[in-house]
TrEMBL record:
The lineage of its organism: Eukaryota, Metazoa, Ecdysozoa, Nematoda, Chromadorea. This is Probable DNA-directed RNA polymerase II subunit RPB11. GO terms for biological process: transcription by RNA polymerase II. One of its GO terms (molecular function) is protein dimerization activity. One of its GO terms (cellular component) is RNA polymerase II, core complex.
Amino acid sequence: MNAPAPFESFLVFDGEKKIAIEKDTKVPNAAIFTVNKEDHTIGNLLKHQLLKDPQVLFAGYKCPHPLEHKFILRVQTTSDTTPADALTSAITDLMAELSLFEERFRSPSSSSSSLFCSTIFRVRRKRTADPHEALVISLKRPKQMSAVTEPIICFRASTTNLKVFI
């Protein structure tokens, strides 16, 4: 079989860098970041977080091949900041946002029934017919498209287990 071993998708081996930075010579104030052992999950989050920064002119990523566990992120910024600084800021902001998400997810006495995390997804608590509580995670669409959200994952929690419905 041509597929690599499963552990090769997440283990960084000796001599292998997690992130490689290369200056993009085609456009001014731009860089190409190659992130090893990651995929669309982190690539898409970083791209969206970078595009929120007014100093970032362009951010995009691609995964070269499904069997290669890496993605290539291109970032172009204004002359006021560097692409590396913009990426560092985006990572810091994402970590803070995910920490807030985790804190509110673990807190059962949250006063609000909905938790908005940026423009990526929304989490809301929903009472179901059974006594267990369900969480629905849904994508937020831009206002031009529709205010309706579509659930992507539904968690049903009980005292003994957690079931995930996709």
